[in-house]
Design brief:
Radius of gyration: 23 Å
Strand content: 15-25%
Strand order of the largest sheet: 11-17-16-15-14-13-12
Number of strands: 17
Number of helices: 11
CATH architecture of one domain: 3-layer Sandwich
Shape: globular
Distance between the termini: 11 Å
CATH class of one domain: Mainly Beta
Structural class: alpha+beta
Length: 428
């Protein structure tokens, strides 16, 4: 096929699509992925197109844009997006791209505006995306209504904001209803971000998620975290001990008394919620196991709420305790580079320096994030070697990783299948 073939120009990743589809078809179950899935720029481009541009992504918290005109931005690969609170109180999502010449509209991560004004030529948009002003030089017949901002899908539940860049996103409403129910005790309309951090890991995004989905490595890597964390998070875990199961039964009775949900809920392999105790005698993910914030969240009456663990693939895991919550967002930056953002949430009336001290609150997860960064980066360096070949996962210790890789493979194959007509054109 000529380098100037128009079909090749239409889909420069056509060959990579075929390679990925064939590799996934032939992959060995319960083994790690072949090397290109972790370091090939073409495979990464397909991850962005077929996963991050088509699935629901965790973007941020509703408390970060609480009032009219508050906005936040993020980058989904090459796609800058903006979320803004409108005059009607609803959160609107748009591609952060001016309809004039394509400049980014909002260049800050967060802020507050009366209108959305492009810094390049001052085209001005209403908070609902309508173009209001394009200057006097566009001609008297210029149609403002034809140049509103391009929307993206936004859904909110339990204080979370999810976005999708797909034309037709996958179903998510069942999970969102459950998420709302499980976070009702926390009164998410009345929380705030107490502290936030971002780190860049020199590793493929899938290695970051794989590392999170198992605690096989915890004993050798996370001394701070294991001051409070149980290595298993539900009694279905094949490693769960009788002592742990007895503790779970006791705590679940306490949570039932407080009408706080705890049951394990799964939505395929994409979403998972469960409340599980921390180590007996500890109530929070701090160095001493004591509360990091003296003001409890929502209607909770006890700090001893264990951890409500929430998983959302492809880019978030979370821990909700009685006194504070820790939420994580993963965004790929390149084939071997990933941005991990951590946010610590507290009751919005909690006073820094009085009710909580940021250094104490963040100490455990700052240490853990750095340890996980080093683990993922060393994993990446080894995978880059010509000696690497897919290795077996432990069904006992790494079942969460198996679930993630299965979910990823299934979604990638399905989304690639939606591009089958293009593949047939190339083959023809």
């Amino acid at each position: 096929m000529s380098a100037f073939d128009p079909v090749s120009l239409d889909d420069p990743l056509a060959n990579a699509r075929q390679e990925v589809a064939e590799s996934l078809r032939r992959r060995r179950p319960n083994f790690s992925l072949p090397q290109p899935f972790y370091n090939d720029a073409r495979f990464f481009a397909l991850d962005m197109q077929e996963i991050f541009e088509k699935e629901w992504l965790f973007a941020g918290m509703t408390c970060e844009i609480p009032a009219k005109g508050n906005f936040m931005t993020l980058e989904v690969g090459d796609n800058p997006v903006i979320l803004v609170r409108g005059s009607d109180g609803a959160v609107h999502g748009f591609h952060n791209v001016c309809r004039h010449r394509g400049s980014r509209l909002c260049v800050k991560e967060k802020g507050k505006v009366a209108k959305l004004v492009c810094p390049y030529h001052q085209w001005t948009y209403e908070l609902d995306g309508r173009l209001l002003f394009a200057g006097s030089d566009m001609g008297e017949h210029f149609d403002l209504a034809a140049y509103g901002l391009k929307p993206i899908h936004v859904k909110s539940a339990g204080g979370y904001l999810f976005i999708s860049l797909a034309d037709e996103p996958p179903a998510i409403d069942d999970f969102l209803v459950t998420l709302e129910h499980y976070l009702e005790p926390y009164d998410m309309a009345n929380v705030k971000v107490a502290v936030e951090s971002s780190i860049v890991e020199q590793a493929n995004w899938k290695l970051v998620i794989e590392n999170n989905r198992e605690c096989y490595h915890c004993n050798g890597a996370h001394p701070e975290l294991l001051n409070s964390l149980q290595e298993f998070d539900d009694t279905d875990d094949p490693r769960a001990t009788p002592t742990y199961k007895a503790l779970v039964a006791r705590k679940q009775a306490d949570w039932d008394t407080q009408q706080v949900p705890w049951q394990l809920k799964r939505f395929g392999k994409r979403n998972r919620l469960t409340r599980t105790p921390l180590l007996d005698g500890t109530v929070s993910m701090t160095m001493d196991g004591k509360p990091a914030c003296q003001m409890l969240m929502g209607r909770l009456e006890s700090p001893d709420m264990g951890s409500l663990r929430i998983l959302h693939l492809p880019n978030s895991w979370n821990h909700f305790m009685g006194d504070h919550a820790v939420v994580f967002r993963v965004m790929p930056l390149g084939p071997q580079q990933t941005l991990v953002t951590t946010k610590w949430l507290v009751h919005k009336e909690a006073v820094e320096g009085v009710d909580y001290h940021p250094e104490q609150m963040r100490h455990v997860w700052d240490a853990t994030n750095d340890q996980d960064r080093r683990l993922a980066e060393e994993n990446q360096r080894g995978i880059n070697s010509k000696a690497y070949e897919p290795g077996p996962y432990s069904a006992t210790y790494e079942f969460g990783v198996i679930d993630f890789i299965d979910w990823y493979s299934e979604r990638l194959q399905e989304n690639l299948g939606q591009s089958a007509p293009q593949l047939q054109m190339v083959q023809g």
